[in-house]
Amino acid sequence: MTLLSDTEKNMKKTVEVVNKEFASLRAGRATPALLDKIMVTYYGTPTPINQLANITTPEARLLVIQPWDKTAMPEIEKAILKSDLGITPASDGNIIRLAVPQLTKERRAELVKVIKKKAEEGRVAVRNLRRDANDGLKSQQKNGDISEDELRRLQDEVQKLTDKYIKEIDALFAAKEKEILTV
Predict the structure, then answer these.
(1) Distances (CA, A) of 153 to 6, 30, 53, 93, 137
(2) How many percent of the chain have pLDDT more than 90?
(3) Is the distance from CB of 55 to CB of 65 less than 8 angstroms?
């Protein structure tokens, strides 16, 4: 049934989006994913940092950005300063260092609220996909394409998919919450 496979594919994508959102949040450790959302104006075009430079993590709390084009360094620094990271870049002319500070208790609580909100948005998106799938199934039944028994069986399948992907989002949330609260 194509409706079921499309619904499952979209639910998977929703979980991937939630996972990416979580990865871009700072949990006291330096990861290149922190810079994923930062766009640099490079020759008038907004470009992701990872397309302009090599990003490495030599230490747990340090990111090193090595631009391939040295003329892009001031723009990269400007973009990092404008971002909501709250980290000041240190440049020596060849590379940019970002020291990720230790999170305060208040900041940890704030981050947990943010990931809770993102997880709930993901759950809502999965539930909306369930609703759309069930509406599609009901219209197929009205058109006489499927029987009432088939409708119930397929709705059960959709519910199983919904439960599965909401559990995945909950697991991602629990893991990220643990990572944030670990001092």
Answers:
(1) 17, 47, 52, 64, 10
(2) 28
(3) yes
Taking residues 102-116, report their average pLDDT.
83
* Number of domains into which the chain is organized: 2
Rg from Cα positions in the chain: 22
Residue 45: both structure tokens together: 């075009």
CATH of the domain at 139: 1.10.132.20
Helical H segments across 24-104, by residue range: 73-82
User: By C-alpha distance, which of 1, 47, 4, 2 is closest to 159?
Assistant: 4
pTM for the whole structure: 0.69
Which is it for the CA torsion 49, 72, 63, 108, positive or negative? negative
Q: Domain range for residue 92?
A: 32-99
How many Cα neighbours within 13 Å face the side chain of 158? 26
